[in-house]
Write a structure and sequence with these properties.
9 helices; Glyco_trans_1; Rossmann fold; transferase; mainly alpha; D-inositol 3-phosphate glycosyltransferase; three-stranded parallel beta sheet; glycosyltransferase
């Protein structure tokens, strides 16, 4: 499993660590890599996660890494993951979720603002309640139980993501917005006292 996100409590790393105790009981070879940026404000939180891992006896199953990897390296990480999880408490956009789907990886993510929109646009993803390690564990185990079905659903989500978030789709969306704004501006009445268009002024000057 892979979780990508800054080391902050709202990213849900602690929920994944707790879920791993249940996941390992069912899939003894399961491992999770938590990768994200780290600063002085989040160092204490990462130490808490390390303490949780030790207390649960998950030292061989949970890897905590702090890294600001370039995009190419992230693609390799996504490609190596059997399941990507994003159990955030809240998100602005859910970029990691979109990246995981685009990479064709099965995704389990919390149904919260910023992620719900992605999950709804991409059937084949697996939504779970936020702050619920037990539900997270059940969802992950369901994917690990049937890798072929998980891969099929991941491909379905990937196709949906290409339609919704691909470059061509985004360009078309921006062009549609610009066209609506242009049409609205053309239909809006001119402000009182506004200067007449140049063409009208020129016509008035040559009229007898």
């Amino acid at each position: 499993m892979l979780l990508v996100g800054r080391y902050k409590e709202r990213k849900g790393q602690r929920e994944l660590v707790r879920a791993m105790a249940r996941i390992v009981a069912r899939h003894p070879t399961a491992r999770a890599a938590l990768v994200g940026s780290l600063n002085s404000a989040s160092a204490a939180y990462k130490r808490q996660l390390e303490d949780d891992v030790e207390a649960l006896g998950l030292g061989e199953h949970v890897l905590l890494r702090s890294s600001d990897r370039p995009f190419g390296s992230m693609r390799a990480l996504y490609g190596a993951a059997d399941v990507v999880v994003q159990p955030s408490h809240a998100e602005g956009l859910g970029l990691s979720a979109i990246e995981a789907i685009a990479a064709g990886r099965p995704l389990v993510a919390a149904s919260v603002s910023g992620l719900s929109e992605v999950l709804e646009c991409c059937p084949g993803t697996v939504p779970v309640p936020p702050r619920d390690p037990e539900a997270l564990a059940r969802a992950v185990c369901g994917l690990l139980d049937d890798p072929a079905a998980a891969a099929k659903e991941a491909r379905r989500a990937q196709e949906a993501a290409r339609r919704e978030f691909g470059a061509e789709s985004m360009v078309d969306g921006y062009l549609a917005v610009y066209e609506r704004l242009r049409a609205a501006r053309a239909q809006a009445p001119a402000p009182v006292g506004a200067a007449a268009p140049a063409e009208a002024r020129a016509g008035a000057e040559v009229s007898p």
